[in-house]
């Protein structure tokens, strides 16, 4: 497998051998792909080194062991996710006073999250594998939710006027948004394929954004019957 830089350009093997920083970056890029494709248990340091175009021992030189390398891959993905999502709350709140502001704000929150997932398919693959393999392998787990996105959702709800009714719980709303966005992409090759859809396309993401926003509008504007 040819590993590329994040900008899509090919990585020169000779440059990697002379440049420790680029070697480390190439190993992280390769590890992200290999872990997403093979899972934690199926991936090996030698395979990651080969995919990165370096020796099979170099990943161990930089990261020590597979668990540490995996943690570095996950940490990098989480940092990217937080950078992508932390501004959504402010952007969504900023449009609330405009015409049809509630819908437009929800489109920012939902569409922004879906576009991040669309741009980072390995994030979806790794999180799906992580959920299955962590409990089975007994590896230590850490919180996997995005505090940045949680803050965005909570900030948006706090800015609504009139505020949503007491039946709207921010935590439950956050879980619903993530589930409604994440599930179709995670199951693109199974349920969605069986229905004739291709989830990993801008067209599907656009329709999914519209549908999820319609659901959330009903939740936020309807008084629940208890």
TrEMBL record:
Start-end of DNA-binding region: 44-63
Residue segments, region Disordered: 1-22
InterPro entries, sorted: Homeodomain-like_sf, HTH-type_TetR-like_transc_reg, HTH_TetR, Tet_transcr_reg_TetR-rel_C_sf
Pfam families in alphabetical order: TetR_N (PF00440)
Ranges for domain HTH tetR-type: 21-81
Keywords: DNA-binding
Coiled-coil features, chain-numbered ranges: none
Protein name listed in UniProt: TetR/AcrR family transcriptional regulator
Lineage, opening ranks: Bacteria, Bacillati, Actinomycetota, Actinomycetes, Streptosporangiales
